[in-house]
Amino acid sequence: MQEGYDLIIIGAGPMGLACAIEAKKANLKYVILEKGVLVNSLFHFPTNMTFFSTSNLLEIGEVPFISHTEKPTRREALEYYRRVWQSWDLDVHLYEPVTEVEKNARGFRVVSDKDVYQTKSIVVATGFYDLEVKLNVPGEDLPKVSHYYEEAHPYVGQELIVVGAANSACQVALETYLRGANVTMVIRSAKIYDRVKYWIKPNIENRIKEGSIKAYFESEIIQIEPKQVLLKTPKGEVAIANDFVLAMTGYKPDYSLLHKLGIEIRADQYQSPVYKEDTFETNVPGIYIAGVICGGMKTNKFFIENSRSHAEAIIHDLRRKVEVDSV
Q: Which domains does the chain have, with CATH numbers?
């Protein structure tokens, strides 16, 4: 067993790294446990993605982020957060998922698939991009269906369905269409979402209007088959030929982990975790949350730029508790 930690951070995304930096500044003994790669969620973003934020808004730990253009790419962001990790010499254990957490007299016993740790406190900074929102229809488990998009090339000359009407779906539809896919969008609402970025919305609407990209509004998939997809539309059921389905239906926090930790979830449409807004401590004393996970299913509430302060608030509260305990 690894003893004597002040803090275990679950998740090595930007907020997990920010919490580790603040813990190191405060001379707290910490470790980050990450189930995948460094900044795992960012790694799974589309290969050619460009951030909506400028590089300075993605900075943490006083490490400058210099990109070739105003808005950095995924590749630049991965390089930047590797430099943050190296610059601060952070204690990060990759490919080590947490499997069990048990409260005891000294704080928490944290079990991973590689070791056991004893810690006074925990920060959950797991983001939301690892778990997709399912369609829950027959055939969703076919190899042709994916909830993640990497690049357009595999879909050249293919009959492609893109599900959704938010930023990701619109970007995917446009990029795959421009690279030669025959794109059909399936959209539950009556129009493209109003909050789609201003430089994307008119483009996708014009492509739909001219018929370059087909769209079924107020419609949903009811079954996916190897060679076709069945839709429920305002005009009845429709079967369309199909090679691939990209379900850009969004992602959600790891609620199973939150439930294991005993964190209370609000019974509202956003299912957001309960926490104190000044310290980010949850209803379980000693367990904190940081970053986008604070918004629950409202995944557009927190971004890197408006949650960097979470780390400072959490470590300030932990340092205060350590000082009180030492008196």
A: 2-131+251-326 (3.50.50.60), 134-247 (3.50.50.60)
